[in-house]
From TrEMBL:
<feature type="compositionally biased region" description="Basic and acidic residues">
    <location>
        <begin position="232"/>
        <end position="242"/>
    </location>
</feature>
<comment type="function">
    <text>Involved in repair of UV radiation-induced DNA damage. Catalyzes the light-dependent monomerization (300-600 nm) of cyclobutyl pyrimidine dimers (in cis-syn configuration), which are formed between adjacent bases on the same DNA strand upon exposure to ultraviolet radiation.</text>
</comment>
<feature type="binding site">
    <location>
        <position position="282"/>
    </location>
    <ligand>
        <name>FAD</name>
    </ligand>
</feature>
<dbReference type="InterPro" id="IPR002081">
    <property type="entry name" value="Cryptochrome/DNA_photolyase_1"/>
</dbReference>
<feature type="domain" description="Photolyase/cryptochrome alpha/beta">
    <location>
        <begin position="8"/>
        <end position="136"/>
    </location>
</feature>
<dbReference type="InterPro" id="IPR014729">
    <property type="entry name" value="Rossmann-like_a/b/a_fold"/>
</dbReference>
<feature type="region of interest" description="Disordered">
    <location>
        <begin position="230"/>
        <end position="250"/>
    </location>
</feature>
<feature type="binding site">
    <location>
        <position position="230"/>
    </location>
    <ligand>
        <name>FAD</name>
    </ligand>
</feature>
<keyword id="KW-0456">Lyase</keyword>
<dbReference type="GO" id="GO:0071949">
    <property type="term" value="F:FAD binding"/>
</dbReference>
<dbReference type="InterPro" id="IPR006050">
    <property type="entry name" value="DNA_photolyase_N"/>
</dbReference>
<dbReference type="InterPro" id="IPR005101">
    <property type="entry name" value="Cryptochr/Photolyase_FAD-bd"/>
</dbReference>
<dbReference type="GO" id="GO:0000719">
    <property type="term" value="P:photoreactive repair"/>
</dbReference>
<feature type="binding site">
    <location>
        <begin position="382"/>
        <end position="384"/>
    </location>
    <ligand>
        <name>FAD</name>
    </ligand>
</feature>
<dbReference type="InterPro" id="IPR018394">
    <property type="entry name" value="DNA_photolyase_1_CS_C"/>
</dbReference>
<keyword id="KW-0285">Flavoprotein</keyword>
<protein>
    <recommendedName>
        <fullName>Deoxyribodipyrimidine photo-lyase</fullName>
        <ecNumber>4.1.99.3</ecNumber>
    </recommendedName>
</protein>
Amino acid sequence: MPASPSTDTAILWFRQDLRLTDNPALQAACRDAGKLLPVYILETDPDPWTPGAASRWWLHHSLAALDAALRERGSRLHLLQGRADECLETLAATSGATAVYWNRRFEPAALTRDRDIEAGLKQRGITCHSSNAALLVEPWDHFNQQGKPYRVFTPFWRSLQPRLEAIVPQRRPSALPGVPRGNGHGLSLEELGLLPEYDWDAGLRNEWQPGEAGAGKRLRSLLETRLIQYPEARDRPDDEGTSRLSPHLHFGELGPRQVLAQLMQHRAGHRSAGLVRAGEQFLRQLAWREFAHHLLYHFPETTDKPLDRRFEHFPWSNAPETLRAWQRGRTGIPLVDAGMRELWHTGWMHNRVRMVAASYLSKNLGIHWREGARWFWDTLVDADLANNTLGWQWTAGCGADAAPFFRIFNPVTQAQKFDPHGRYLRRWLPELARLPDKWLARPWEAPTEVLAEADIRLGDNYPAPVVDLKASRARALGGWDEIKGISR
């Protein structure tokens, strides 16, 4: 005879897994529980990396989408705010829940907190079930031949590839257990206070559709219309060449197993050499995300300290006004300024431009990479601690598999190569729109009569460069000379 359905009540704790498809914690809870109480807790636990304003905006809309999806299936999302351990213990007591299900996070503070929460719940007789929804392979299950964490991407990627065929996403549950009675609705979404107090988010609203449905649309758009151009177009900020899946992956509206499975299915149905190559290029980028999370797990101190300890002695500059000019897109270097304005307006920046802007801050301006990481953390909708840490340390030359320090991106040649017709620069820097292409990436070198004809007054309606690119590059290399002989 089939087993009788359980009458136990369980709590499903949503975190960075705001989806119903390929959600192993949800699947396990549906299998085991007779009643299910889905909950999201806006945590007030001490954490040096609390979500920034752009991430909070995204979270508000993603939670609204998740609640709507749950309500379509006869359930709803219970919203709380406070310390996660206290909220879960209180909720278990009031609901009679005997188990809590969640998907693991891998940030240093979250790992510590989860261990403490699990220990506290078990002391109260509540069973805990955690699963992996965020990564293809968990960090404690993937080492090099010496049994140590990978610190270079290429061998990490080579060792990961044979494991991909066995990775399969889980289906969305066909039905959800009912919600236990007598628990109210918790807080309203508005009471969480995630939206900005004043209206600066119009650009975000126009650009993004947070939630599982929006994530699915982005992925379909990539596979059906843009994948074939991906290898070349992904470096072009003037084109829709990237997937823009990063915020959806960060909030777990889409899981990497889903992306992998749909990409492989698409490639199987379209076996052209171009699509195979494009698919491999995109999979490689998904693996970089994986690599970032593995690094952060094994080297948790790298959110604030360089993996290459020589850089603890680097002569960084303390220049608050120059930092503010970079943040506001007022450096006088068009590609950097365009990227910083795109970031402020849309909560996102093209990856090629991120590298240029990061190189300019840490090398030409000589400002500590941590300042840039903090600004990106507050302004990016895809602010992900692992990716942000890897990206900044890679560009600054002090992380795992880092670009050599002497690789200093030239923002003029980068703009000329990857925005050859100036569409990206003109979109975000309309004050330069009348400049000919020849001078658009370097207006300070344009003849006086060309600037006058374009109605550009450097230092007035567009800033003069805050540093000379050639001289600042030489200073950066001088700083490298000071530390490169220090023992790592």
